[in-house]
Design goal:
The protein contains 9 helices and 13 strands. With 302 residues, it is an alpha/beta fold. Helix 1 packs parallel to helix 2, helix 7 packs antiparallel against helix 8 and helix 8 packs antiparallel against helix 9.
Length: 302
């Protein structure tokens, strides 16, 4: 098998009805490509929808909600294709979106993972926040994207239509070499959700693999399908996992982590002054739990 496209679903029956038809249609003529929906212990009608409305789509049924990271790990354990695409359940795919990604991977054996341009499903002229045109990391470990500046997304005017090497590719739509994914242990299950793909990409780069955005492919992402961007739970996971990621992957991380300690408390104060008590509390809880997770985390050999 050349490629498996895997959509991880949790209680997303309506998402499946809305977005899965485009994925099925876009892959109908693709040779040696298999579409799989991995159900993460849904309690809604997801499995019934898949059975009745999408009988041609293969399903992997997990016994509980393992989160984004472990859910994908368990699904990818069951495939042996050359490439695997992690595709969010709220992504619309046009015809021909997969071919440029696979062609680039075939032509560049030094590349472990690629992503397409991610544009907004709500306003298709604009990039989408989660991934846009490929991600970068600042020296303090803060992620950013081409097409996203200071939390605002840009209109796609072709300014990022050149293939570019990036620091990380988004889990909203990531095409990765299956063997590399498995050799590196996949996504860190302790993250549960958020930042896990950036952590995986960092581990890839530490092993001298390259990553790229291939803008000849474009998909459309709803975004915020599981947690809204201002949800305190999302804030908690982003802050906690970002700190763990820095600890695991950065050479001599302590200077950066000391600075981040100060900046995190400033962020908590900023949330508090904005009246977002839940988000302020989430930052403090993230720092507390990061310290617990750090004890169990295995640092990469860099």
């Amino acid at each position: 098998m050349k490629c498996n496209v895997i959509i991880l679903n949790w209680n997303g029956a309506e998402m499946l009805r809305t977005y899965l038809p485009s994925v099925v249609k876009s892959l109908v003529e693709s040779r040696d490509v298999e579409l799989i929906v991995a159900d993460n212990g849904s309690t809604d009608e997801s499995l019934a929808v898949l059975s009745k409305e999408f009988p041609s789509v293969k399903t992997i049924v997990l016994d509980q909600n393992y989160g984004f990271a472990e859910g994908y790990n368990r699904a990818i354990e069951q495939v042996d294709s050359e490439y695997v695409v992690l595709l969010n359940s709220d992504v619309e795919t046009p015809e021909g979106w997969l071919t440029p990604l696979l062609d680039y991977m075939d032509a560049h054996p030094e590349v472990a993972a690629v992503q397409p341009k991610i544009r907004s499903w709500r306003d298709k002229a604009y990039f989408e926040y989660a991934g846009a045109a490929g991600g970068y990391l600042s020296w303090l470990g803060y992620p950013s994207c081409r097409g996203r500046k200071w939390g605002r997304v840009e209109k796609d005017k072709g300014q990022y239509d050149t293939i570019a090497e990036v620091d990380w590719t988004t889990g909203a739509c990531m095409c990765v070499r299956t063997q590399v994914y498995k050799e590196l242990g996949g996504l860190d299950a302790s993250f549960f959700a958020h930042m896990e793909e950036i952590d995986l990409c960092w581990r890839m780069r530490n092993k001298k693999w390259k990553l790229a955005c291939v803008p000849q492919s474009t998909v459309y992402h709803l975004g915020g399908g599981s947690l809204s961007y201002d949800n305190p739970r999302k804030t908690y996971l982003n802050f906690r996992n970002n700190l763990v990621m820095i600890y695991k992957n950065r050479r001599f991380p302590w200077c950066v982590l000391a600075i981040r300690c100060v900046l995190d408390y400033v962020a908590a104060l900023h949330f508090l002054l904005q009246g977002k008590k839940g988000s302020a509390k989430a930052v403090l809880e993230a720092r507390r739990d990061y310290k617990k997770m750090r004890v169990k985390s295995v640092k990469c050999k860099v």
